[in-house]
Amino acid sequence: MRADRPMRLLAGAIFALLLAACASVPLEDKPPAPPADASAAAGTKPADPKADPRAVASVDATPRALDPLADPASPLAKRSIFFDFDSFVVKPEYQPVVEAHGKFLVANPGRKVTIEGHADERGSREYNLALGQKRADAVKSRLRLLGVAEGQIETVSFGEEKPMALGSNEEAWAQNRRADLNYR
Amino acid sequence: MLKALAHALVLMAALLGLSPATAQLRVEITGVGSNQFPVAVANFRRDGEIPQPVDEIIRANLQRSGLFRLIDAGSAPLSETSAVSLPEFKGRGADALVVGSVARLADGRYDLRFRLYDTVKQTQLDALSYVSSAAELRLNAHRISDRIFEKLTGERGVFATRIAYVAQLARDRFELHIADADGAGAQPALRSREPIMSPAWSADGSRLAYVSFETGKPVVYVHTIATGERRVLANFRGSNSAPAWAPDGRRLAVVLTRDGLSQIYSIGADGSDLQRLTRSAGIDTEPVFSPDGRFIYFTSDRGGGPQIYRMNADGSNVVRVTFNGDYNVSPRISPDGRLLAYVGRRGGRFQVHTLDLATNQELALTDTALDESPSFAPNGRMLLYATEVGRRGILASVSTDGRVRARLSGPSGDVREPTWGPFLQ
Fold it and tell me: What is the spatial distance between Cα B304 and Cα B321, in angstroms, rounded to a whole number?
């Protein structure tokens, strides 16, 4: 009886070690990620203040030219889809914009987008809130058809509460009947 | 004469109560009733420094209702104890005379008294005294206005009720205001950098439910006005909006997108026991209970464009109610349940209409083109609504016969989403 207790403890300890080893396996299997480019790695490396008190660590904050979202020439630069009055139908002329964003999101499953629906000032604020939601959802369903994952898209409506253009004319109203794609 | 009156710009006593801290509304009367009751309201006798022009408030109230024609009572004050010659006032054309006094008491309170005479029958119709703090003087002037209104028209007055509305003072400055029914004494109940929408009074007038975007998306809150205490009522995935109180105050109807498109749900006033009421393939929104609580009227685009429908409060037995035009939204039911008010688009203009639910007679009430959010006065005689004049959002009121019209606008910014509170408890 007396010898049994340490044996049990030992067995428990071995089991715990095994568990810990198992849990660490995938991490050890993974090779360390190579730096994207040498200068970025040098810039982010914390400098040892004792080595040289006059050292300057440079950080480059300019957007990487490779990010297509930041390229004004890319079709992805278009982030708004406009609608007719009391309509949530995505018109054919906006299909290329939707497709460009669909392809980008499928190729970059880590990227997430919020689609914001808006409406013009006419009629009911609550109905316009619902209409803005329907517009955002219409763009979302197009993106889903292109293979974008559900988890990458969030929709929200601001109804007529956040107009892009101020003014009571068709030009202003047309600008406010829209869905905006905002990348996070 | 009527036309001259109709176009006369009337600066209300409201302006005199203007405080620098809050933006007060200005009232302009743009239409009057066809049969106006001639009444003279004398200047009240003042004893001490009186902070509110009570006689002017009473005159302004009666005039704004559109049902009275004010007869000049002369500049000399007449109190409830003054000896007045009723035949003389009858001779001037007044069928009724109001006299009174305000006195500052030794304890700092105010004694407000009034007397209402019938100059035709040469009798007293009413007399009363209110002792109150300075803060309540304006309310008591409204109470006296209500008594005069009721004695002379046979209907309950709404001058002592309150309204709530949303003011946008800058691109990122939104406030939910509570003001007297004449637009005076506005106080912000909520300030936010994000939009506020759809305030709705509980039947007892103690709480407001509304939609606030302060967290970046529409969420429904319930706000106790006297304490400022507020709770989240509905914050589900997607959008939460369009709160409407059941008459018993125990449940609300709300609109959620948690299951897809905007649909109507019922929820306990404490946020418990969510039940889905509509299951349509379109937008269902803007629920509002009938005064008896049996029905919910709402806006739906299930038939194509938005129209107004009615269902039982449990969501069963849906019937379409509006058939004129291709865009009818924002239903409200009169306190007697007989009239449906809504915004209808006719020929590109969005105007407040009423539909007599017994005869199906539709009436266009306004001369404006971008009307929103109609709301019945608790006596059912007037509708308050939001519209746009000169690129600014203003509030306007119109009598249910379409004759009496007034506009309320702030000194700057937009005002909108008005909702008329219940009778004072």
Answer: 15
Domain with B416 in it: what CATH number? 2.120.10.30
Give Cβ neighbours of residue B316 (< 8 Å, ≥ 6 apart).
Answer: none
Question: Is B305 a domain residue?
Answer: yes
State the pLDDT at residue A5: 54
Report ipTM for this prediction: 0.88
Last residue within a domain, chosen from B103, B127, B153: B153
What pTM was estimated for this model as a whole?
0.82
B302 and B174 together in one domain: yes
B21 Cβ contact list (under 8 Å, min separation 6): none
Q: Would you say residue B158 lies in a domain?
A: no
Interchain proximity A125–B370, CB inside 8 Å: no
A49 against B98, higher pLDDT: B98
State the pLDDT at residue A137: 96
Q: Is A150 on the interface with B (CB under 8 A)?
A: no
The yes-or-no verdict on residue B13 having pLDDT over 80 is no
- Collect all residues of chain A within an 8 Å Cβ-Cβ radius of residue B348: none
Task: Provide, as residue numbers in chain B, all residues whose Cβ is less than 8 Å from the Cβ of A157.
Answer: 218, 239
* CATH, residue B69: 3.40.50.10070
CB contact under 8 A, B283 and A122: no
Alpha carbons A136 and A158: distance in angstroms, whole number: 10
Instruction: Provide the CB-side half-sphere exposure for B238 (13 A, CA).
Output: 18
Confidence at residue A184, expressed as pLDDT on a 0 to 100 scale: 84
Q: Is residue B358 part of a domain?
A: yes
Q: Does A168 touch chain B (CB under 8 A)?
A: yes
Contacts of A131 in chain B (CB under 8 A): 283
DSSP H or E segment with residue A101? helix A95-107
Q: How many folded domains does chain B comprise?
A: 2
| pLDDT above 70: residue A154 | yes
Closest CA to B40 of B110, B111, B102, B120: B120
Task: Kindly state whether residues B40 and B176 are assigned to the same domain.
Answer: no
Q: What is the mean pLDDT of residues B380-395?
A: 92
- Whether the per-residue pLDDT at B20 is higher than 70: the answer is no
In angstroms, the separation between the Cα of residue A124 and the nearest Cα of chain B is 6
Residue B306 to residue A86, Cβ atoms within 8 A? yes
B57, B200: one domain: no
Average pLDDT over all residues of chain B: 91
pLDDT at A43: 43
What residue numbers bound the domain in which B179 lies? 163-420
